[in-house]
Amino acid sequence: MKFRKLRQLVPGGRGLQPDRLFLQTADYILLLRNRSGRVLEKQRRKYQPRIKCSGCSNTLEEVHVQIWFRLWPAAPLVSLTVCFLKPVMAVDQAYLDAVTEKRIRLFQSIQAEQSAAREKIGGETIKVTLPDGSIKEGKKWITTPFVVAKGISKSLAADALIAEVNGTLWDMTRPLEGDCDLKLFKFDSNEGRDTFWHSRAHILGEALEREYGCKLCIGPCTTRGEGFYYDAFYNGLALNEDHFERIKSQAKKAVAEKQLFERIEVTRDQALEMFSENSFKVEIINELPEDKTITVYRCGPLVDLCRGPHIPNTSFVKAFACLKASSSYWRGKSDRESLQRVYGISFPDTKRLQEYLDLLEEAKKRDHRILGQNQELFFFHPLSPGSCFFLPHGTRIYNKLMDFMRNQYRERGYHEVLSPNIYNMQLWETSGHAANYKDNMFVFEIEKQEFGLKPMNCPGHCLMFEHRVRSYRELPLRLADFGVLHRNELSGALTGLTRVRRFQQDDAHIFCRESQIKDEVKSGLEFINYAYDKFGFTFELELSTRPEKHLGDKETWDKAEAALSEALNEFGKPWQINEGDGAFYGPKIDIGVFDALKRKFQCATLQLDFQLPARFNLTYSAEDEAKRERPVMIHRAILGSVERMLAILLEHYKGKWPFWLSPRQAIVCPVSERSQAYALEVRDRIHQAGYYVDVDTTDRKIQKKVREAQLAQYNYILVVGEEEAKSGQVSVRVRDKADHSVKSMDDLLAHFRDEVEVFH
């Protein structure tokens, strides 16, 4: 079949470029397969090299696919043979070699100059202090963390991936510059794991550049526990799983060569010369602050702009997998260049990689988008992208979560408030969001004035605090708000319930005195512990301290950080310091929660804020009524986005909701039509007691009713027949349990009450 005829055959194919037509054809074939019910035969694909594609620099492969199918069960067999041209990026090897050679030449030249300079000033004895207080001697500009590690033990030198020198992450092979405190990290630490994945991203970048001649953009590690990715520009090529073997083959070569990760510092002009052929790197360089140190790393043929640090060499990566490929935009903006993003994961050994891949398969089975559809909890519609439609059963869970928080608010001294959804942009200018967050807001004009839908509640709560004179006797003032929030996320970033445009938070803001910070933070930590224990979550704590650029004086920050440290110590759970990672307006405690698959999520927030009270000029009268003092504001959330928490819980429980949260707590299954009247009586009594209960009055056999109820994840299946009707009892089957018992209605309802009270 001719290529032009394929455009006519495939719905929506007219006017599509080859790469888009390829995808459209694949979707159409899938549609035909779904209609037919089964595919009787699918011939193997045959790939034949073709000429260059007009309009781009890609070559084309001619692909033939033949499918036999039925449009409906009784229809005759129909054969469809499609032939389409699949673009394959042509590598300009001569150009790539020239660019690589130029970068390596410049790198080596600068490296030689810097090595010679270090030799002239190096050699002075320095003291290296280890975490246990012991001191090792070394030579300035000569001794490296690797040398120190090797002096302690060979196994430590073999396992240590990254160092920390005076609080700064440091390459194991980078010379020490003076007396210092030294820490070493292995893969099982956050620092080691993130560095490992960042380095693996460079190996991925090398493979992509070698194989496809693409222009590399950025390649960071993602949120902890999720690996890394590399964005690159391919001039029209769309990557998919078919490309992964070629990518992995190139990556394996890099690992086998044990390529060193080498570091140099460059001037802005040197960096611009080195990456002049890559407009994306040039843009990054030009946007760096004038006083910013620019660093470049090399591993094998790859020379890349990077802050580092990195693992010693590529051989540390023993196991690697490409996870997926997707499209993205440069800088996340839809009006910029279209890129391809390849995600990957890697580990120091194949065992851990296989364990991760097994978890990934389990995660697919738990995907909240699939479970939510199967359980009829929610759906999305293209007419309101990023805004969820919660069906009755989904709304039951949503409301249960908010009721749970409301009950705790009452016990813990919070005041629930309602605040507007729409504010004049003057509010956001005062708060600073207009300057820093406007692109993420929905902004519109009313009567020639600019308004915005609120993306967060904190500025509105500041207005509530300032609307009248406040006294120190009112503090701490804890305001809680479930108000609807809107954030203008890019359509390509929307992902089920985890990334939406419309959502609600269990948002609270605590206005307090500096002397009350410790007690309020400790109370917040206890609240988090209580809630997460009910959900079956574990969590970890980090204190993020003053960044280089911050609002407020050092003394205030030191007091606040000391109060947070004291609260964490009194709370009693292990915690770590994340130096310099606080927000510019205050230190914070980061709470990472782990689900049943050991995946880490950031949901809860405990954030001190010195900025908003100052921006809104918030004050309260002190004991000396003539004196006005400024409150400290604490941002506090536990569930975070209720939508996102619902998604996390759905996957955490694998759709098997605990009784107190379940939208389907019980179902009554009559054995026959003669026991339906009693089944309805049972249903009514359970309903009147406040539980979610259904009754199956279909004419199906009881075994089928029970099986359907199990699949629907009802917590309790209550079977009633003529004997149960006579005795006023029910036969109780518990989800996922083979045994069953007989209970009176009073005993059953008492059991239900006990189930709920355990979680409250």
UniProtKB/TrEMBL annotation:
Residues 358-658 form the Aminoacyl-transfer RNA synthetases class-II family profile domain. It holds the Pfam family tRNA_SAD. Signal peptide: none annotated. The keyword DNA-binding does not apply. GO terms for cellular component: chloroplast; mitochondrion. Residues 122-186 form the TGS domain. InterPro entries: aa-tRNA-synt_IIb, aa-tRNA-synth_II, aa-tRNA-synth_II/BPL/LPL, Anticodon-bd, Anticodon-bd_dom_sf, Beta-grasp_dom_sf, TGS, TGS-like. Belongs to the class-II aminoacyl-tRNA synthetase family. This is threonine--tRNA ligase. It is found in: Cytoplasm. GO terms for molecular function: ATP binding; threonine-tRNA ligase activity. One of its GO terms (biological process) is threonyl-tRNA aminoacylation. Keywords: Aminoacyl-tRNA synthetase, ATP-binding, Cytoplasm, Ligase, Nucleotide-binding, Protein biosynthesis. Coiled coil: none annotated. Its main location: cytoplasm. The keyword Transmembrane does not apply. It comes from Aristolochia fimbriata.
